[in-house]
Design a protein that fits this description.
With 271 residues, the chain is of the alpha/beta class. Helix content is 39%, strand content 19%.
């Protein structure tokens, strides 16, 4: 199934999204990717979900094919608000959301802002408890040409070496996978936007905010996640009052890439 690809200007920035329309689906699932990623990260999960659900996969700024404006405020709260505005514009009423890694934090911010909109949330390897960048790091983002240093830093190890860290079974890494994850770095404007994100990003939601969320949440984790270790999942499961945690053996951080069928099975059972 091929998606309908669209871009729309909201809050002063272009948001790109892909829509997989299902003629008979009664439920809509919204996908939010993680840091330095895009809708590409759900490429192996979407074919399963699209059999049963109407799917909307969003590139949140400054990633993927969405805008990288230096006038946009790259906080979780503003990104979440912008996505909610998009969903209102496309007519979404009551949805399920899936957030991977940083996308999970954005989903949690969406729930805090609009608990009426989101029926249930699936948080895959969700980031958590990361504080705001320290003052001296935020100050560095004002240094002229800082984007060049960010570019050099991110390219130092390369996409392939980073993928070897985030997946458990490295045999799944192929040319198509490498090409898909390195594509965002072909656009130089993203590095300036990343500097702004480092400056703007507030810390992850505190325990008291998490404890106020009543929306049912399913937490999916890999037992070999080196990016967001399992102890974060356990802590989130403790702080989110209406949540459950499922741990997969011999998997890393990219569950939608590594075990899409198993992830799909858990999601459909939860929904």
């Amino acid at each position: 199934m091929l998606p309908t690809r669209s871009s729309i200007n909201i809050n002063g920035i272009t948001i790109y999204y892909e829509e997989y329309k299902h003629p008979n689906a009664r439920e809509t699932i919204v996908l939010i990717h993680g840091f330095l990623s895009s809708s590409f990260s759900f490429r192996r999960l979407i074919p399963y979900l699209a059999k049963d659900f109407h799917i909307i996969s969003i590139d949140f700024p400054p990633f993927g094919k969405s805008g990288k404006s230096l006038k946009f405020r790259y906080t979780y709260a503003n990104i979440a608000s912008t996505i909610l505005n998009l969903l209102d514009m496309v007519g979404c009423k009551h949805i399920f959301t899936i957030g991977h890694s940083m996308g999970g934090q954005i989903v949690l911010n969406m729930i805090l802002q609009r608990p009426d909109l989101i029926k249930k949330a699936i948080l895959i390897s969700c980031s958590g408890y990361v504080p705001r960048a320290k003052t001296h790091l935020r100050a560095l983002t004002y240094v002229p040409f800082v984007e060049r240093f960010i570019k050099l830093y991110l390219k130092k190890s390369g996409v392939e070496e980073n993928l070897k860290i985030v997946v458990y079974d490295q045999s799944i890494i192929d040319k198509d996978m490498i090409k898909g994850y390195e594509e965002p770095f072909h656009h130089n404007e993203i590095f300036q936007a990343l500097a702004k994100m480092l400056r703007h990003r507030e810390g992850d939601l505190a325990a008291n905010a998490l404890q106020s969320i009543q929306t049912p949440c399913l937490l999916l984790w890999g037992d070999h996640d080196k990016i967001v270790p399992l102890h974060i999942g356990n802590r989130l499961a403790n702080d989110l009052p209406n949540s459950s945690l499922v741990v997969f053996k011999n998997t890393g951080h990219l569950l939608p890439e590594e075990i899409p069928k198993e992830v799909y099975d858990e999601i459909t059972q939860f929904i």
